[in-house]
Specification:
The complex is a heterodimer. Chain A has ten helices and six strands; from the N terminus they run ααβαβαβαβαβαβααα. By secondary structure, chain A is of the alpha/beta class. Classes of the chains: A alpha/beta, B mainly alpha. Chains A and B meet through α1, α3, α4, β3 and α5 of A and α2, α4, α5 and α8 of B.
Amino acid sequence: MAAVAYYIKGAEKGRVPTLRRIAGIDAIDEAIGRAVEMGKPIVCSHGIADLRGATSGPQTLAGLSVLSYVAKKSIESGARVIVPVRQVEVWPIAADIVEMEYKLAGKEDEFNSEDIRFLSPQQFGYASNYMGILMRERPAANIMIGAYWAESLQLGETGNRAGCFQISGTAQTSQIPFFLVTTDYCLIGEEVYSAGAYLTQDGPVIASLAGQDVGRLIAVALSVLGVLLATMGSNLLLDLMGM
Amino acid sequence: MSDVLKRIQIPIIITAVAALLQVIPYYFNIPVIDSAASTAADGVILIVNMAVFVGVISISQVHGRRISRRAERWGYSVVLMISMIIMALTGLPFESMGLGLKNPIYDFFFMNAMTPLSGTLYSILAFFITSAAYRAFRARNIESALILVAGTIVVMSNAPLFTSSFPFFIDMKNWIFDVPNASTMRAVTMGAALGAIALAVRTLMGIERGYLRGGGED
């Protein structure tokens, strides 16, 4: 946390690190362009989790950041955005994000609240409704970034059947393989959290990713040290960490 | 967009305060903060339960309009609205009036409609896995060839008819699970945890604004 805060402060003084390209996030613009060319909508979902889960809540936040970008670009380009929602507490946020983008684009008359659809709080009620949207609307693109569980494969496969250009992303390790085989681009793990920073190109937000890398270096160093100590028969590191 | 900024300052402050109320009691024992955190947690439960009505309103708006316009497949909307009303009314938490989870009508629809429908949706995953496997198990490049080989070994190792003749497939499967799979999953998990921490810090500091209206632009 200290490293993240340090790099954010550094960015405020003009020291902004360079961000590597992430193909899956770059493809979002391609998806929007495809929707405009085909005259079809884009379906953009932020997962099925609420905002309170320790591991799933941040993924929903990241998904909402992507939704904000997708809505902004789509509305500017004239593409319609459909947002399937499972959690009632997230629905007003998603609706507000999209409605605000319409207002900022001066197209508030075009905002249709029916496109921000609360489907069902039930996991498979949501999944069946989502699959129905994909098959009925035949969207040009299906963007799924957030926390997903067993429905990930159903949604990805149905998107394939509907002929969608698909971009997915989740930090749920058990679902990453399903997204990898069913979608065109897949954001893996931490890429989901960096999507917001990547899309906004905001200096302090990008800098926080460098702080994240410091944490990664510490984790790798501790892993190597732990392997060496364990090989030599020592539990020193485990004892120090209370494990 | 200064007016937008003013409007997003309030949720940023609420987010920061709520986050600190959760973080501080974890590290320090300050009775006043503990009490405030408990009150905030109760508030969250209240807001989430109130949000249920938002969902009901949203569904009613969408499907009410579809029914009134006689939109395509509007009959399904009628079924949905009737089902929602029946379940909402019979499931109200007034047990003295015979309502709630033990209400026979609620129980009937729950056991005979909702449960089998959910089970059916879950079970069709098997068919989705088959079609996904067909797509994944094609050796188009080195990566997909590796998936093909690993997948074949895992599938074979789970078939008793096969492992009775070739028991070493079980050892190969265990190695795949314990070495390349476990190490990759741990790396992804650690990376995701670090990403979540960084996102939390950005949110706490109010610089992660993508989830706010207008993308938090100022």
